[in-house]
Design goal:
heterodimer, A: 793 residues, alpha+beta, 3 domains, 23 helices, 28 strands, 50% helix, B: Rossmann fold, six-stranded mixed β-sheet, four-stranded antiparallel β-sheet, 7 helices, 35% helix
């Protein structure tokens, strides 16, 4: 029976090639979209899930209060790990981890690389299960001058030489010994590094950090809890842990708590000290999108299958008259749809393989299909089965319900189910229209952010890490002068860190008229001379730092506009402000707000002070009259002469700015692609309905034609019905889409206005596409010879 | 007694107005009879046949098939009984277009869950008897009307039913082919003692049988034995 059914199913597919093509094609595209999204969701979902003891690993977070707002940060006092381990019984292990800004130079002979290093307590490698390829995991971090490296780092530095016991030069200063090599970590882990230093080494290079009080938060901390210890009880003990040690911190709250490490990647947003989503929202959205696309494809199949009900009805009647039970008929239809969904799955799989590299490239992620994984195949087969069942369920129930006597007498399916199918089509289109509108609005927002004046000139601006010889102020001056003389740059200024990164904040600044109890957070950045010229920002009042004024190197500061507004200063220039225990500082200039950290967010109040020593980066304005490659070549040459130990790594500021829009671009690409597919598949659904209608109404149309209706009349008559559905879908979709995009835009301080244009575009697009699709079919019906349809009655 | 009908009624209620198809039909059919149901269009012949074939249910009345009360029976048992005892032959043949001749004939055996080896031998047997061995792999649309109807009858016979219900089996055929089919029915009835019930318009076809039921306006008008 099964064999025969299978044979008949295949024959059916082959006989109706066009139909099968639409059906399998639609389903395959839907499945491919769905699989792609599921791979992405899985990629995000499996972040950090590789660690063995994950359920017991927690990350310390700290709730702090500023001006009534509670902020949660992953930075905690460096004393917390040891003290908590000693005083709180449920904690098994604790490890601090810290990294310096920027990568450090590691060199071995001529192999020089800037590598990402992490400084950790020895228990770090006990808490997180790294796979040691070489060396002893127990002793690897015992010696302050030993390091653990990843296998790809080992390859880079040593090639095929056994790295254990070999030494590398750190920052051109000190020899460090390789104690172990670990396997490269998967890309979807949140702690990424090339080199692991023992904490003792961190203490060596930052001798003052040891003396830090409880108030300074400088490192992250991992905790491992013992079995059967509840998180709540530990958090209760931790709540007042810091405040008990240092009661004056109470004004800033200073409540540490443990957060499950496995949630760290997906739940990264905190509001009022409680977790408030984060990346998980995006993942959920994509999972929802995956289900929607698949659902639309399934609806499609249902629609197309039932559209052929007349052809199948007779077969059902005969089979029933031959003694088939309803169950076995349903089985047959199910079999057909499962067969189809497996065929579609194969095509979808091929599509997926072809498009995956492109997709990875587009979104700058690294997703690979793991062919060895049982889970992958299970999911693949599972999705195909579920799709088959889902898509086949309605046709199976509907078609097998025919009463044989009626169908054998020439019944053509009943109109009650037509309205059900109309509902399905409306649903399809509603989803698709929502996607189209969202895609347009996301695109608008990206364009808006791209075109928003940044307040500084991002092109022709490069940055270079200050290290080695360049940390020496006189050498640095020489470097700058030589660069200017060579014509490579027109100005340069030191800056606290990479220009597009965030930076340090403080709550310690006071200004005239600051309300009591106001502990606002102000960002601070160190700069050199000529800062505003170099970045191309405007000075609104006063002046930039200049070597002409000796006070500029000690007691002058600049504010940005937001800071002036925040401090409510009427005449900012000349105002005296205080910052911690520094001498009183005088504001000499106000710089116009510029957006270098988050394009969509408001600018933070920022204070600028002159300090070359504390600056880690040199910002340079390239000479626009000289070609880019010549300028870069000049910079590299001069750097090579003055600072031979360090290869010059020049980064372009505009690349950094481009990366800021990464998550928006991802959303835009996904909603564009999947919105497009959704519309396409929905059109196939509409085509199915049109086919069905053509069968249903062929007699009516023939009679109308016999009565003298012309082609135009009939086309209007037929298309009207479908357009009604699309219009209804639009009416339903508009408010939903509006709410959706409005919600999404909430997270931006600067956002595009939602105007009628995306909505209008969606209406016009959906109507046009629908008319085109339906006309393909209705035209055929309207042109058909009337007698053919009437003869068989 | 094979079939016993008592006071069978069938009507459709439309806005409170009942339109009767069958009224007070009471009759019985014995094993081995060849009954022709005659009557003008719309008299209720086909409805009666469908009720007998359990494809339709009477609105009212009792129907005993081989001593069992059909109207009180549940769906599964009815299908079971139906599979084992009833073969249908249609005016429009109603072969399944997607199946070959052999597969069409096999279909009822599949539903009866007859094992594969026996299925094969039965199909071979029937094909042989109907001289259609050469055509077994053709599809219905490659056959003439008469050949299709032969397949239809073969399909009805292969399950070895005790009764064949035929709704105008020759209605779509030319007279020569029609005669061939009717001869076949007569032979089956005589030699294999299969009960046959046919609905027909044609007096000539009715004479192949040994009993004639005439229905007019849903009522049995005449019931005569033919010598």
């Amino acid at each position: 029976m099964f064999k025969l059914n299978l044979k008949i199913a295949l024959r059916n597919l082959w006989k109706n090639k066009g139909f099968s093509l639409i059906n399998i094609g639609g389903l395959a595209i839907g499945l491919a979209c769905c699989l792609m999204l599921m791979l992405y969701v899985n990629y995000e979902w499996s972040y950090d899930k590789q660690y063995k003891n994950l359920d017991h690993i927690y990350l310390a977070k700290l709730n702090m209060k500023f001006n009534g707002n509670i902020a949660s940060t992953g930075a905690v006092p460096n004393k917390l790990a040891a003290a908590a381990l000693e005083e709180i019984p449920g904690i098994k292990n604790a490890a601090r981890m810290a990294h310096t800004n920027g990568n450090r130079l590691f060199s071995r002979d001529q192999n020089k690389f800037k590598l990402k290093a992490e400084y950790v307590d020895p228990s770090f490698i006990k808490i997180l299960s790294y796979n040691f390829l070489m060396g002893n995991a127990n002793t690897a971090l015992n010696d302050p001058n030993s390091i653990i490296i990843t296998s790809s780092t080992a390859k880079k530095l040593f090639g095929n030489v056994d790295p254990i016991g070999q030494s590398v030069k750190w920052d051109n200063l000190k020899d460090l010994k390789i104690s172990a090599v670990i396997e490269d970590m998967p890309k979807n882990q949140s702690i990424q590094f090339d080199v692991l230093h023992p904490w003792a080494f961190f203490d060596q290079i930052n001798p003052n950090d040891k003396k830090n009080g409880w108030g300074s938060i400088t490192c992250g901390t991992l905790f491992e809890l013992r079995d059967n210890v509840s998180l709540a009880s530990i958090n209760d003990l931790l709540k007042n842990f810091i405040v008990n040690k240092e009661p004056e911190l109470k004004t800033y709250l200073y409540q540490p708590f443990l957060f499950p490490f496995k949630k760290n990647h997906l739940y990264n947003q905190f509001e009022n000290g409680k977790v408030a989503g984060g990346k998980i929202d995006e993942v959920k959205l994509f999972a929802f999108l995956a289900i929607c696309v698949l659902f639309i494809a399934c609806i499609n199949y249902m629609n197309l299958s039932t559209a052929r009900s007349e052809k199948r009805a007779r077969e059902v009647g005969v089979r029933k008259a031959l003694g088939s039970a309803r169950g076995s008929l349903m089985g047959q239809f199910m079999l057909e749809s499962i067969l189809l969904s497996f065929l579609a799955m194969m095509i979808a799989f091929a599509l997926l393989e072809i498009s995956l590299p492109y997709f990875n490239n587009l979104l700058a992620i690294h997703i690979q299909i793991n062919y060895a994984s049982v889970l992958f195949w299970t999911v693949l087969v599972g999705v195909a089965l579920i799709t088959g069942f889902l898509a086949g369920s309605y046709p199976a129930f509907y078609l097998s319900s025919f009463i044989p006597v009626k169908v054998l007498k020439g019944f053509k399916g009943n109109t009650g189910t037509l309205s059900f199918r109309r509902l399905l089509v409306v649903l399809q289109f509603t989803l698709s229209i929502c996607m189209i509108i969202s895609a347009i609005v996301v695109y608008d927002q990206i364009q808006f952010l791209k075109n928003k004046p940044l307040g500084f000139e991002q092109n022709n601006m490069v940055q270079l890490d200050l290290e080695g010889e360049l940390r020496n102020p006189s050498k640095l001056e020489l470097f700058k002068t030589q660069l200017k003389n060579s014509g490579a740059i027109i100005s340069a200024s030191e800056f606290a860190q990479q220009f597009t990164n965030g930076g340090s904040i403080t709550g310690d600044i006071s200004w005239p008229g600051k309300p009591a109890g106001d502990n606002s957070i102000i960002s601070y950045r160190s700069t050199g001379f000529d800062f505003s010229n170099t970045i191309g920002a405007k000075i609104v009042a006063g002046r930039d730092f200049s070597p002409k004024f000796t006070a500029d190197t000690s007691t002058s500061v600049m504010l940005n506009e937001t800071a002036v507004k925040h401090m409510n200063l009427k005449n900012p220039v000349g105002t005296i402000i205080t910052w911690a225990d520094n001498p009183p500082l005088k504001v000499v200039g106000v710089i116009k707000d510029y957006f270098n950290e988050d394009i969509g967010k408001k600018v933070e109040p920022t204070i600028y002070y002159y300090n070359v020593k504390k600056s880690n980066v040199l910002l340079m304005r390239l000479n626009a009259n000289q070609s880019l490659s010549t300028s870069i070549g000049n910079i590299k040459n001069i750097s090579q002469q003055l600072n031979p130990a360090y290869p010059a790594q020049i980064t372009f500021v505009n690349n950094g700015m481009e990366e800021k829009l990464q998550s928006e671009r991802l959303l835009s690409v996904l909603s564009n692609i999947f919105g497009g597919f959704a519309i396409f598949i929905s059109c196939l659904g509409l085509l199915g309905l049109a086919l069905y209608m053509a069968e249903q109404r062929s007699k009516e149309i023939s009679i109308r034609k016999v009565l003298g209706a012309n082609l135009g009349d009939i086309l209007v008559l037929l298309n009207k019905d479908f357009l009604k559905l699309v219009v209804i879908s639009n009416i339903i979709a508009m408010p939903i889409a509006y709410i959706l995009v409005n919600n999404w835009l909430q997270k931006y301080d600067y956002k595009t206005d939602i105007n009628y244009l995306p909505f209008l575009l969606a209406i016009v697009a959906s109507l046009c596409i629908a008319v085109l699709t339906v006309s393909l079919q209705t035209f055929k019906v309207a042109k058909a010879n009337a007698i053919d349809a009437l003869k068989y009655e | 007694m094979m079939i016993e009908l008592k006071n069978i009624e069938k009507y459709y209620a439309n806005k409170g107005v009942k339109s009767y198809i069958l009224r007070h039909v009471t009759t019985s059919i014995k094993q081995g009879e060849f009954v022709s149901i005659m009557g003008p269009s719309g008299a209720g012949k086909s409805t009666l046949l469908n009720i007998l074939g359990m494809l339709e249910e009477p609105t009212y009345g009792e129907y005993h098939f081989m001593g069992e009360d059909i109207t009180a029976m549940n769906e599964r048992k009815r299908i079971e009984l139906y599979r084992n005892h009833i073969g249908f032959v249609f005016q429009a043949y109603h072969l399944i277009d997607e199946m070959t001749v052999a597969e069409n004939i096999e279909a009822p055996l599949l539903y009866k869950k007859i094992p594969g080896a026996e299925r094969k031998s039965r199909i071979a047997d029937v094909l042989d008897r109907f001289n259609m061995v050469a055509k077994k792999d053709l599809f219905p649309n490659q056959l003439s009307g008469g050949q299709q109807q032969l397949v239809g009858i073969a399909r009805a016979l292969v399950a070895q039913p005790s009764i064949i219900l035929a709704d105008e089996p020759t209605g779509n055929l030319q007279s020569a082919q029609a005669e061939q089919i009717m001869d076949l029915f007569k032979k089956l009835n005589k030699e294999e003692n299969i009960t046959i019930l046919q609905v027909t318009h044609s007096e000539k076809n009715a004479l192949y049988g040994n009993r004639m039921l005439t229905i007019e306006d849903g009522v049995v008008k005449e019931d005569v034995q033919i010598k």
